[in-house]
Design goal:
Number of strands: 11
Strand order of the largest sheet: 2-1-3-4-5
Number of domains: 2
Strand content: 15-25%
Distance between the termini: 50 Å
Mean pLDDT: 90
Shape: elongated
Oligomer: single chain
Order of helices and strands: HHEHEHEHEHEHHHHEHEEHHEHEEH
Structural class: alpha/beta
Radius of gyration: 30 Å
Low-confidence stretches: none
CATH architecture of the largest domain: 3-Layer(aba) Sandwich
CATH class of the largest domain: Alpha Beta
Length: about 325
């Protein structure tokens, strides 16, 4: 193999060439979506089982990601490796499922047993390929045809543009299904309870300290008792309530502003009368933004009647990973 002198290769030029070729392929795909795309969406929406995705090689890797995206956005899905299917994993596929087979050439021999199995048990088969006149596409009930875009590989052989287009079409399918199902942030959180995504989708009610921990005082409470409440609860604030309604909040800043006559006043006289609050349904990142924008350490959570039902501390949000 006659390798070029590595020092003579224009790295940025080569990178731009690859990206531009793949962008061209994406534009072709966007301008020429498969004719069967809408029928495929309707088929999957009506499926009583799962969308089984399969492929080998690079198509298999892409198929695995597509299946994972589908499953996390409301479409039950499972990836079954084509080779393993021929050695017992066909039993994972039921007559209530829909089968999506991926092969850029449409002639991958490892798919034959899956095709035969789908035909034997009348399992709806979706083919995803760039070759309409291929065994896979001829056997399919629905066909997702990719444009014959040039591979970005330097020798035009390694799957590059074709895998990018396959992934993009898979994302388009998953997101379209997601919208059709009315998939909401609350649903997304159910599938992503861990890590940063889970933290970002958490609501204030999942994080806040409850009623038993609220630092609350009456309007006429002395400042001595108010400071004691602030200190014992550890949030650096005290809510001033009357008949269960939050009228104001005493903060460290309020203490400093009233220092000269502090101990001669009541909580209601010292408190800020327009306290910042959030509802229990507020998303955690939005609550953190209120805290950071106003340079405070904590804020009260109130219901529709302006009754305090919780208190939120910035440290709780940061510990959870909300940023």
């Amino acid at each position: 193999m006659n390798a070029p002198n590595a020092s003579s290769v224009d790295r940025q030029k080569e990178a731009r060439r690859v990206i531009e070729l793949e962008v061209d392929g994406m534009k072709q795909l966007a301008d020429n979506l498969p004719v069967d795309f809408e029928d495929v969406v309707d088929l999957i929406l009506g499926c009583e089982g799962r969308l089984i995705v399969s492929g080998v090689g690079k198509s298999g890797h892409i198929g695995c990601k597509i299946s994972a995206t589908l499953a996390s956005t409301g479409t039950p899905s499972q990836f079954v490796h084509s080779t393993e299917a021929s050695h017992g994993d066909l039993g994972m596929i039921t007559e209530k499922d829909v089968l999506l087979l991926i092969s850029n050439s449409g002639s991958t021999s490892e798919l034959r047993d899956l095709i035969a199995y789908a035909q034997r048990f009348s399992i709806p088969l979706i083919g995803l390929s760039s070759n309409m006149d291929s065994p896979l596409m001829r056997a399919s009930n629905h066909r997702l045809l990719l444009p014959k875009a040039k591979e970005a590989c330097a020798i035009g052989m390694a799957p590059t543009t074709s895998t990018t287009l396959t992934l993009a079409l898979g994302d388009a399918l998953a997101v379209t299904l997601m919208v059709c199902r009315g998939f909401q942030p609350e649903d997304f959180k159910n599938f992503h309870p861990g890590g940063k995504l889970g933290a970002q989708m958490s609501k204030v009610k999942d994080i806040m300290h409850g009623v038993d921990e609220l630092p609350l005082v009456d309007f006429n409470t002395s400042m001595g008792d108010t400071i004691l409440e602030m200190t014992s609860r550890g949030f650096g604030i005290a809510g001033v309530v009357q008949d269960g309604v939050l009228l104001g909040v005493v903060t460290d800043g309020d203490l400093r502003r009233n220092m000269s006559e502090l101990m001669d006043k009541t909580a209601g006289e010292v408190a800020s009368k327009t306290p910042l609050t959030v509802s229990p349904e507020t998303l955690a990142p939005n609550a953190l933004k209120v805290i950071q924008d106003n340079k405070i350490g904590a804020l009260f959570v109130t219901n529709e009647q302006n009754h305090p039902v919780g208190v939120l501390n910035v440290h709780d949000l940061l510990r959870l990973g909300v940023v």
